Amino acid sequence: MATWHVGSSVLHKVVEMEFPVTVTGALRSSDTGLLGRYPWLAPHFAEPDGSFTMAIQTILVDTGTHRILVDTCIGNDRVTLPQLPPLQTAWLETLKGLGYPAETIDAVVCTHLHFDHVGWNTHLVDGAWVPTFPNARYVIPRAEWEFWSNAVDTDSVGRADLDNTLRPVFEAGLVDLVGPDHEVADGVRLEAAPGHTPGQVAVVVESAGERAVVTGDLVHHPVQFVAPEVPSAADEDVAGAIATRRAFVDRYADSGTLVVGTHFPSPTAGWLTRADGDVKFVVERP
Predict the structure, then answer these.
(1) pTM score, two decimals?
(2) Residue 275 and residue 175: Cα distance in Å, rounded?
(3) Which domains does the chain have, with CATH numbers?
(4) How far apart are CA 99 and CA 167, in angstroms?
(5) pLDDT (tens digit, 9 = 90+) per residue, 238-280?
(6) Alpha-carbon distance 30 to 24, whole Å?
(7) Cβ–Cβ under 8 Å, residues 175 and 118
C-alpha cells in the first residue's frame, strides 16, 4: 500500500497482484540488457537478471468531496489469459479496509478497456455479473468504447470480455461516455494518451497548486520514459504510443508533477527530470 498527498487530495494505491516479467515478455524488445543500461532503475524497477516486477493495481483518488477509482484491475472469477487462472483475491476487502466500501465510490475511470483495467467493474452475484460500485458513474472514453465494441479481432492482446465487464454497467445506466479532456470532478480531469489503445487517457489530479498524473498504460515500465521508442507488448498503434510517450515527457519533465505509474511496483510514483539532456524517473523529490 502507498498514499500520496496532492494538495488537499489523497491518492491511495490498492494492489491486486504483482509478478515478475522479462523485458522481452512485457515490452516489444529483444534487448535483454535494456534495463542494465540505466543504473537509476535499480533497485526498484530492475532486477540483477534484467527482469522487473509488474503490478496490477488501482489508484484511488479522494478529493474530499469525490471518491474516484482509476482502473479496476482483473477481478475475481474471470477467464482472461490462458496462462492466468481465474483469480480469488481480497482486492475489494482491501478497498473497504481503507475506508472505501464499494457503495461509497462516486466514479470509476477506465483509462482504457484492456482486461486488467476493467475487471472489478462488475462481480459475480448468484451467477450473474452485476456492477460492483452501484452508486458510481463509470467514466469511459467514447473513442475507446467505440473501438472495442466494434472490434472483430478477438485475439487482440489484452482484450476484455465486454459482455461481463462493461455491458452490465451499461444496462444499469451507470456509464458516461466522454471525450478525452473530460472533467471527472473538481480538480480531476482526463488527458488524451492514445496509442496503446485508440482512446486511452491518463488522469490528472490538481489541488492547491500541486499536480499528479496517473499514466494508464502509456508506459508499462519507467525505461519507456527515457526510451519511448520501446513499445509495450500490447500497444495497438506503436507509432502513436511512441508519440504519446514523448509528449508526456516533454509536458511533465521538471514540472514538479508526481507521476504515478499504473503498472509500476513500489514505490510506484516519482518525478521526471532532465539533466544534460538525459531523462530519469526518480523516486526522491528533486
Answers:
(1) 0.97
(2) 44
(3) 2-282 (3.60.15.10)
(4) 28
(5) 999 999 999 999 999 999 999 999 999 999 999 999 988 899 9
(6) 5
(7) no
